[in-house]
Predict the structure.
Amino acid sequence: MSARRLLVLFGHPGRGGFNEAAIDGAARAARAGHALQLEWIADNDPDARAARLATLCAAGPDLVIVHGGQGDVPVAQVAPRFAPTQFAITQGSHHAANVASYEILQEHSAFLAGVLAGLRGGAAHLSGERVRPGLKGRAAYADGVRRVRGHDPLTGFCGNQHDPALAGAWTEALAARGARVVFAMMDGGREGITGACRRHGLRQIGNVLDWVARDPAVFLASALADSGLCVERAAADHAAGALRVGAVTHFGLEAGASLRLVLGADVSAEERRILDDWSARLVRGEVQVATDYTGPEFELESANPAW
């Protein structure tokens, strides 16, 4: 009997580049003979997510790939109850006897995004939920900004990856505080950020996918980190009986087609030269990118005098 493999995604179908990357990775896995059944969890509450995941696991799948660091908490709750099932979390950090984590090191391209935003000035960042991949990406971006600007960017988490109106309101507030370039680590809520960027003449730096090709008028660059690679590799490893349970498998700059900073046409020759220099230093291991951020946080509901 063929293996039954699930890919669990948080959010809504048809919205969000992060989930789009996973679906693309699932398509590549299917072409290699490792088909995945897609399941969606729209609820934003971790306990509700865990309950839905448990319902899916009750049918006895062989593999459950949970896409995104949001999967750490529900998988940690559910996996011990379903020992025969193997789990893989993409962009997460939880691992156990029947749980593997696969992570593409988006902090490398996020760091370069920070360097570029720092060169431009008015650097800002916005993400949704405070999960570990988002926190690491923000820390790397802020590190890049500091290396060339000497201070932290405006940075905040709006609390939901998939709410365009909420993300748009936060971007409006960032614009009012002087933001000129917004690094948006967002999924279904991205359209709200992009709309606000258009209204205020802000440039956006995307993540996960190549947003420059889709909307070059708004996107200055995109911190490509194709998390679909994690889906593809987890499915292939499971099919080979080699899922790396109990460990975190990382993909770095050696996965060049999947991890890099894509640049828009108006990034200058001097900016490209500086970015190339930082990229080379990353590859040589000369730069230790920050993985934690301890600076001020931007909050929508307060003037936040720290800024």
About this structure: Residues 5-105+227-251 form a domain with the Rossmann fold fold (CATH 3.40.50.2300). The chain has ten helices and twelve strands. Residues 25 and 31 are 10 Å apart (CA to CA). The chain has two domains: 5-105+227-251, 106-224+260-283.
